[in-house]
Write a structure and sequence with these properties.
By secondary structure, the protein is α+β, with helices and mostly antiparallel strands. The chain is 44% helix and 27% strand.
Length: 135
């Protein structure tokens, strides 16, 4: 009599192929996770730099751009708030009343190099035009 030899289970080749596919998937997911974490770290430093620029620009706007320029402070550090970051400002008169174009740049060291983020905006100083409404 003939015995029915049905294959039950997986062969060795099928098991090896499934193991290779699983290994490749794990390696790919791990690499993507690592890149994602590195990207999140880079984004965090740029977010911090943007927040510091916003803080410094608000301070300049509150004090007044004219007073800030008269004091002669165009660069500095953030002190204990963010010791690894420094800032520099450049302001140029636009030629319309007392309007200035202000560029604020924040610098920090990262991976053996210097990174920076710059923002440019316009700020008003006190008006130098005479009040002509009382004629």
């Amino acid at each position: 009599m003939k015995q029915d030899r049905r294959q039950r289970g997986l062969s060795l080749v099928e098991t090896l192929v499934a193991g290779m596919i699983l290994s490749a998937t794990v390696v790919t997911v791990s690499a993507l996770s690592t890149r994602s974490m590195a990207g999140a770290g880079i984004n965090r430093t740029y977010e911090q730099a943007a927040a510091l620029i916003n803080r410094q620009m608000t301070l300049i706007d509150c004090v007044g751009i004219s007073a800030f320029l008269e004091a002669g402070q165009t660069q500095g550090e953030f002190g204990e708030l963010a010791p690894e970051y420094t800032w520099a400002m450049a302001a140029e008169s636009v030629g319309i009343d007392n309007l200035y174009e202000v560029t604020m740049t924040v610098y920090w060291a990262e991976r053996g190099g210097i990174k920076s983020l710059s923002v440019t905006t316009r700020l008003n100083g006190p008006s130098v035009l005479a009040d002509t409404t009382s004629l």
